[in-house]
């Protein structure tokens, strides 16, 4: 699905999950949207002679729900019409940079070509500094794992991440539940669009930097058609030899590319303004230095244009095929509304024997994760300390008949890398996209219910398990098999 479809789907998810009491969307609204979406998706698939996909179904369903909500709530209609934020920045900042660049070298005498022009040297120096910082950041990402996890795509930090969700100001006169849902959506969409926002900002900043330098070049060259430049330099602290050394390094790449003749220390000394002020201006000399500066500026910003083009291409790819994780419980529930056989939740208890009451609770958990028609396949409990391969008893972790495999831990146990961690790591390695982690709090909560500070001890153990699972790149879903509704898992789809 593309970016706009994904945005609508995420918005509908926020509305449905926040609206747990069905104040905004009734059961009939949700069932009608699912039924209509299934029919439309089937018609669309038959027209293209392909199978129905979750993308088609989710697109049609989100359109149905948002259309109905917009008819009921005019204020929401205005919010839906807003596009993604930042478009004004993408067009306005490069244009502004071009105009500013065109006037930057007019700070000094417009009839002189200052060989030590501060604005032109600053443009060159700033771009070279940016390239060095980008190279350092690339090296850090290659050799430092912590940098890979950060936001640095080309620039380590961006202060504009909220632009991805559009205007942060919410419409007035909305129901409280709908307002809460929009707040949830803005936060969620900002997080999901982080990489795309970085790429777009990178493209804008690179283009702005290139146009800034291009504006300076155009201004410098254009004024040469109507004015006669006098080339020279002046400095309180630098002598001719030092200026010659600086300019030789600065203009060496361009002088080599366009085969311009070199210049000596005597040539530089002769161009000192204090000595040349009484002499007639040299148009040829001015032309030479204008060409050197213009060519150097263009050469310096060519990598900016390349980087901007690459960022633009990557952003278009992401926008055309937005990476929305459809393995989350909410989307798994909706798959059951697409038709076909009921989903199957395979549960692998680890050192945890379930009684009859908790076994029944698994059915409710499966409904939360995979929809009301979901079935549970409960495997025998794995013994503490067993090798993962032996504990699974030859079960195939990748099985088309299994919708989701869930490893079930007991919150009362203390997580250990050598045992729980090894079992979890084996599952995630074998089927990284089809494994969930369920942690049952019922036994620990029941045991500590009558003790002072019992709830806080349960919360501490939950935090321990969550950190443990995060270390293994998994998300811990806390459930209560005795009271499943006490720990809802992204319910809302109907």
Describe this protein's structure:
The chain is an alpha/beta fold. It is built from 19 helices and seven strands. The chain has helices at residues 3-18, 27-47, 54-72, 74-81, 87-104, 118-143, 145-148, 176-192, 194-226, 240-258, 265-270, 273-276, 283-320, 329-335, 356-370, 388-392, 417-430, 442-448, 454-471; strands at residues 112-114, 230-232, 344-349, 375-378, 404-410, 435-440, 476-479. The strands form two sheets. The protein has a five-stranded parallel β-sheet with strand order 4-3-5-6-7, sandwiched between helices. The chain has a two-stranded parallel sheet with strand order 1-2. Strand 5, helix 17 (417-430) and strand 6 (435-440) form a beta-alpha-beta unit. The longest helix is centred in the middle third of the chain and has 38 residues, at 283-320. The protein is elongated, with a radius of gyration of 32 Å. It starts with a helix and ends in a 15-residue tail after the last strand. Residues 146-159 and 276-284 have low confidence and may be disordered.
